[in-house]
UniProtKB/TrEMBL annotation:
SUPFAM superfamilies according to UniProt: FAD/NAD(P)-binding domain
Protein family: Belongs to the flavin-dependent halogenase family. Bacterial tryptophan halogenase subfamily.
Protein name according to UniProt: Tryptophan 7-halogenase
Source species, domain of life: Bacteria
Pfam families: Trp_halogenase
InterPro entries linked to this entry: FAD/NAD-bd_sf, Flavin-dep_Halogenase_NPB, Flavin_halogenase, Trp_halogen
Amino acid sequence: MINRVVIVGGGTAGWMTASYFKAAFGDRIDITLVESGHLGTVGVGEATFSDIRHFFEFLGLKEKDWMPACNATYKLAVRFENWREQGHYFYHPFEQMRSVNGFPLTDWWLQEGPTSRFDKDCFVMPSVIDAGLSPRQLDGTLIDQPFVEGADEMQGLTMSEHQGKTQFPYAYHFEAALLAKYLTTYSVERGVKHIIDDVESVDLDSRGWITGVRTGEHGDISGDLYIDCTGFRGVLLNKALEEPFISYQDTLPNDSAVALQVPMDMEKRGIRPCTTATAQDAGWIWTIPLMGRVGTGYVYAKDYISPEEAERTLREFVGPAAADAEANHIKMRIGRSRNSWVKNCVGIGLTSGFVEPLESTGIFFIHHAIEQLAKNFPDDNWNETHRDRYNDAIAHVMDGVREFLVLHYVGAKRNDTQYWRDAKTRKMPDGLAERIEKWKTQLPDSETVFPYYHGLPPYSWGCILLGTGGIEVKPSPALRISDSSAAQREFEAIREKTEHLTRTLPKAYDYFSQLS
Ligand code: FAD
């Protein structure tokens, strides 16, 4: 029976995998996790997708259990600043798109929206975020939205099975190091063997299958299934098994980042409950508010700006509070391993693949990979069907997200530096140009977006097109000859609801203070 699992790497990927597998398989699985004591983790990755709540639910954890321990806050959207022009911003919120007479409300908005702000006319969250509010009342009651919390029929579904049924209205920000620590305790308490040591070499049999990993001080560690969570190093999958890496660099040129952890008095500053992505001359800066500090970083392309200039720009952007913060310069490997599962080794996390963190998809990739591996767990004969299904699912998710990110750059109206001008003429992933042509006369729907599960509902694609503003889109022709009164009532209902919520919800900071 295949039930001895060796995980190499103790970053977010390693510990999420260990804890999920313990929750899924209990004592029927034997897990050893080896992590280096001196090779650090990547040290970033603090914003998530709203589906992440299924991960914590699966582990049986409630927000009050883990959020205070990880200085976590809510994330209701990504806020894009200066992607169209200086001073402009828009939101890509976690909020179910309403539809009227079979058309998404954004289509009606294009036809005759009440104001020039698609995000505030079609969703309630943007105004809640602008006011720095929590989506939960102080007693924990969640705002009334079209989604189902804790509904029985939703329990135990994977993220891909959930899609389209519901859109939970928020994700989380958390301190990555604290989450890894929290999940370490969770996993070890449930029987995961934790070894701190370096894997110095990997033993292969004559067929090239892994028979064990050799550590510096703990000798050989062997199992049936090996999970490579060694980050960009890809020690097992890419180095020992020589699985090639497919670069996305030709379509997504950002290959570097510099990050700062900036301590702040969040009570004074207030928490804007979203991740902000502020466009810069050669990339963009993320801002992630946590309880006690802000995480920030400049993602850029080295062909356009040096690491020194990027760090200087980031420090100026943050201001005096960043003076004592140590910069973490990161070289990013953008793309995916050709196959994430090869022989008896599965790469999860940065080893498997990574696209720049513009839509916070790294941890989503990990969560999706874990769900897929649990679903396609190998049988005793290593039936190739499980492996092939897994590899297809992983490749589709990353290829789909790559397309989505490319749309941000192709769609950005901003044209003021060489970086932004080149973004309009750079090669696009196959199929995207054709899809964009379709969207010019009807916003993205489930029939016209990337055809495989990739985590992003059609409305997300529509938000980026409408927000970035560089591609002219028109409403569906049918709406010109349709009665719009029902859509106008919906816009009015959103306006009233927004007004009610901004009057009654507590400040985000106050909510988290009382939670801890
Ligand atoms: P790592 O964190 O690099 O961990 C690798 C582990 O392997 C470490 O424990 C290391 O000690 C161990 N290791 C390596 N070699 C050996 C060896 N020989 N022997 C033993 N142990 C070894 N994702 C998001 O979802 N949201 C975000 O906002 C986000 N922002 C990001 C920003 C940047 C700039 C980058 C680069 C990534 C970002 N990500 C984000 C992605 C996210 O950080 C990663 O997906 C996540 O942290 C998982 O990393 P990992 O565990 O795969 O690798």
